[in-house]
């Protein structure tokens, strides 16, 4: 099998590594330059390709004429997209002689679109997965080749879940590779009536709304915690990032956003359903600390409350 691989991130590295290990003739790798505004915690697709002697390019536009020419020169049987961040137009998708295939981080047709790992956590899902599917110009729309399910544990963060997805994506590539080589890989049309679609997330989407339930806020926290920018709220005009939290029973007559320090020194915030235990936090620009350490140093008075959310406030997200 001769392939061109467009890939980035932890899942991209895992899938490229699987193809190389399987002996695929990877003629070219297309990736992204790392952004100075993003925390780079994942393995490098570029480094993995170069270690195998595979040429690498990182174009600003994968659909540009010179990039298309380079990919045509590679004469791929398959074009793979493994967490590549640019949309591919029809001209590019038509280049491989066999198929253009994508790995998506959900069980399609659910969670089409951007940031599926974050959205499933925000929404409190208990299962997700990875899907290998044919690409067309509609996002995450083409026929399914294969899927693997991934259970979501209550303590999973976006990073932990991404690492789980990467491991299963590697297995999925290894499972389907012999079928692709033999021309016997299945094609299952997606049920568009069952599809859900989610857009990309911005840092401001990490803003905490204390009128939600404590469980919903806990889900937001784990969905956007480090290495993502983090969930946040404001108190006395200062931004507080919440990196880890858990739910606790509510206490009577407490308005959402009210802060209480319990007998053990833990800071609890009232919500419309239950209370949120702030386990790890930091003021913007300061070092992270436990919630108890923060409460001791923050001079929290009885009856302290978080500020009302302001439209357009900046903060953590994905």
How would you summarize what this structure contains?
This protein is α/β, with parallel strands linked by helices and 318 residues long. The chain has eight helices and 15 strands. It folds into two domains: 2-198, 3-Layer(aba) Sandwich (Rossmann fold); 203-297, Roll (Methionyl-tRNA Fmet Formyltransferase, Chain A, domain 2).
Describe this structure in words.
- With 318 residues, this protein is α/β, with parallel strands linked by helices.
- α5 packs antiparallel against α7.
- The longest helix is centred in the middle third of the chain and has 25 residues, at 158-182.
- The protein has helices at residues 9-22, 45-51, 65-74, 90-93, 116-122, 158-182, 214-224, 291-297, and strands at residues 2-7, 25-30, 56-57, 78-82, 99-104, 112-113, 127-134, 144-151, 197-198, 231-235, 238-248, 259-261, 267-270, 275-283, 289-290.
Percent of residues in helices:
25-40%
Number of strands: 15
Radius of gyration: 22 Å
- What is the CATH first-level class name of the largest domain? Alpha Beta
Per CATH, the superfamily of the largest domain is Formyl transferase, N-terminal domain
Enumerate how many helices there are, as a single number: 8
Strand order of the largest sheet: 3-2-1-4-5-7-8
Termini distance?
Answer: 36 Å
**CATH fold field value of the largest domain:** Rossmann fold
- Could you give a short account of the major beta sheet? 7 strands, mixed
What's the rounded overall pLDDT mean?
94
Give the total of domains.
2
Query: What is the succession of H and E elements?
Result: EHEHEHEHEEHEEHEHEEEEEEH
Structural class of the secondary elements? alpha/beta
SS strand fraction: 15-25%
Shape: elongated
- Unreliable stretches: 312-318
Going by CATH, the architecture of the largest domain would be 3-Layer(aba) Sandwich
């Amino acid at each position: 099998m001769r392939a061109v691989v467009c890939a980035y991130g932890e899942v991209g590295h895992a899938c490229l590594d699987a193809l190389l290990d399987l002996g695929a003739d990877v003629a070219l790798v297309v990736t992204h330059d790392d952004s100075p505004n993003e925390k780079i915690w994942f393995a490098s697709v570029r480094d993995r390709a170069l270690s195998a002697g595979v040429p690498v390019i990182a174009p600003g536009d994968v659909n540009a004429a010179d990039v298309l020419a380079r990919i045509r020169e590679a004469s791929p049987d398959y074009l793979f997209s493994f967490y590549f961040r640019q949309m591919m137009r029809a001209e590019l998708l038509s280049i491989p002689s066999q198929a253009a295939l994508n790995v998506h981080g959900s069980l399609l047709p659910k969670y089409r679109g951007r940031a599926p790992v974050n959205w499933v956590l925000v929404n409190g899902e208990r299962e997700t997965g990875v899907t290998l599917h044919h690409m067309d110009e509609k996002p995450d729309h083409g026929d399914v080749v294969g899927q693997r399910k991934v259970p979501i544990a209550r303590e999973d963060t976006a990073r932990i879940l991404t690492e789980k997805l990467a491991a299963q994506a590697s297995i999925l590539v290894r499972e389907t590779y012999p079928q692709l080589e033999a021309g016997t890989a299945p094609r299952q049309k997606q049920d568009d009536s069952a599809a859900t679609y989610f857009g990309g997330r911005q840092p401001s989407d990490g803003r905490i709304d204390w009128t939600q339930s404590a469980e919903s806020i806990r889900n937001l926290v784990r969905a956007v915690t480090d290495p993502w920018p983090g969930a946040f709220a404001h108190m006395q005009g200062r931004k507080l990032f919440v990196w880890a939290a858990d739910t606790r029973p509510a206490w009577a007559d407490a308005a959402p956003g009210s802060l209480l320090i319990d007998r053990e020194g833990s800071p609890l915030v009232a919500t419309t359903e239950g209370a949120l235990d702030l386990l790890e936090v930091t003021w913007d620009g300061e070092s992270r600390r436990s919630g108890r350490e923060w409460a001791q140093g923050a001079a929290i008075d009885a009856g302290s409350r978080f500020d009302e959310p302001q439209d357009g406030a900046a903060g953590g997200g994905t």
